[in-house]
Design goal:
The chain is an alpha+beta fold. Strands 1, 2, 3, 4, 5, 6 and 7 form a seven-stranded mixed β-sheet that branches. Helix 1 packs antiparallel against helix 2. The chain is globular and about 40 Å long.
């Protein structure tokens, strides 16, 4: 399966679990939309050049590999909702995490995958980008 399925930073301020800063909330929403719409240009902008994904199979993917897999013909995601979010925000960094059930097609074949993820964001040059993602799949017995 593509890497998207197996789909902290240091700063001087203390972490917060409050509402996300508006610019980070917008970047996170844009990132979710980019994944659902196979938008390679948006992913190019929202992922840092040094982005790394560690998927549920413990495989490592680069930014280029993630974008390639996310925009491959025959791959699509249905709209999803992030449940049980756990967010921590610093001045120039954040960890946005939660639980999600992804549904879609891969190579034209339907899939469902229930997972927990953590996206690590960094504010660089005045804009938020994802620098690292870790994904943990729930055991098959816990799949919806």
């Amino acid at each position: 399966m593509h890497a998207i399925l197996w789909t902290a930073l240091l700063a001087t301020a203390a972490p917060q679990d409050a509402a996300l800063p508006p610019d980070l909330a917008q970047a996170a929403a844009d990132y979710d939309q980019a994944q659902m719409h196979n938008d390679g240009a948006a992913l190019q902008r929202l992922l840092a050049d040094d982005y790394t994904l560690v998927n549920g199979a413990a495989e490592i993917s680069t930014k280029a590999e993630f974008i390639r897999d996310s925009t491959a013909p025959g791959f699509s995601l249905q709209p999803f909702v992030i449940e049980h979010p756990i967010n921590r925000v610093w001045r120039d960094g954040a960890v946005l995490s939660g639980e999600v059930t992804l549904r879609g097609t891969d190579g034209g074949k339907p899939f469902v995958s229930h997972m927990r993820f953590a996206d690590i964001w960094a504010k660089r040059g005045g804009r938020w980008q994802v620098v690292f993602t870790e994904v943990t799949r729930f055991p098959a017995a816990a799949q919806p």
